[in-house]
Automatic annotation (TrEMBL):
Residues 1-20 are annotated as: Disordered. This is Urea carboxylase-associated protein 2. It comes from Pseudomonas syringae pv. pisi. The lineage of its organism: Bacteria, Pseudomonadati, Pseudomonadota, Gammaproteobacteria, Pseudomonadales. InterPro entries: DUF1989, UAAP2. Coiled coil: none annotated. Residues 48-214 form the DUF1989 domain.
């Protein structure tokens, strides 16, 4: 193994294993293949995603994935990809057109860019989730706020970091995402505003996988608007058979 590969391998975060695993802030969870297993137990993944950090895991068809807003008012920026063909990914246009709604909630089906159902929202205690606000990035922080905000930590940075460590995804795969628990009302003029969240501690959204998928999360680090209450907090992810 050459020196560059050794360095990269040492840089990878700890990979937990066993029937249940919890990841803490000093071990950023960006690649979690070992958490997904054909376990006879009901709960096969229990992970806490630190504030402002990325997360990547696999969810098998028929399994459910629950995302919990532990402390309330925390946006969880999420993308989904087909496990067998990561070029097949969540498609916001197809999803909204089929749902005839710009928000997602119980009963909403997430469709891929190939027109296939990827996941279905089977339970939702928050009420609605944003599909239009996108993921914060250096560029959007600069345009929306100020030049000096350009270098603040962003969701796009998190996505790229997770993709780099995982190896199956690249910059070209990062498209429009879902913002679970995020409140982005559409104005009468057709504009978007970032408002205080409508979530609360312990609220969750649960999805059933209709195909084997990769779930890629940025637990949003944004500090410049109220999507996180100006105070990013941890989220939790549970995968059940």
């Amino acid at each position: 193994m050459d020196e560059s590969r050794r360095k990269r391998r040492r840089a990878l975060p700890h990979l937990a294993s066993g029937k249940r695993a919890r990841l803490h802030q000093h071990r950023p969870p960006v690649r979690l293949r070992s958490l997904v297993m054909n376990s006879p137990t009901h709960l096969c993944c229990d992970a806490t995603i630190p504030a402002g950090e990325p997360f990547l895991a696999e969810v098998k068809a028929g399994q459910t994935v629950r995302i919990l807003d532990l402390q309330g008012n925390q946006a969880v920026d999420t993308l989904f990809f087909s496990l067998s063909n990561p070029r097949e990914r969540y498609d916001v246009q197809r999803t909204l057109r089929r749902q005839n709604s710009v928000y997602l909630t119980t009963g909403s089906v997430l469709f891929s860019n190939l027109g296939q159902p990827m996941l279905t929202i089977v339970d939702d205690t928050c009420g609605r989730h944003d599909t239009l606000g996108g993921a914060c990035a250096q560029e959007s922080n600069t345009v929306r706020y100020a030049l000096e905000k350009r270098y603040m930590h962003s969701c796009r940075d998190n996505y790229l970091r997770a993709c780099m460590h995982d190896g199956r995804l690249s910059k070209a795969d990062i498209g429009p995402n879902i913002n679970f628990f995020m409140n982005v009302p559409v104005t009468a003029e057709g504009g978007l505003t970032f408002e205080d969240g409508i979530s609360a501690p312990g609220k969750y959204v649960e999805l059933r996988a209709e195909m084997d998928v990769i779930v890629l999360i940025s637990n949003c680090p944004q500090l410049n608007n109220p999507c996180n209450g100006y105070n990013p907090t941890p989220a939790q992810l549970l995968i059940r058979n």
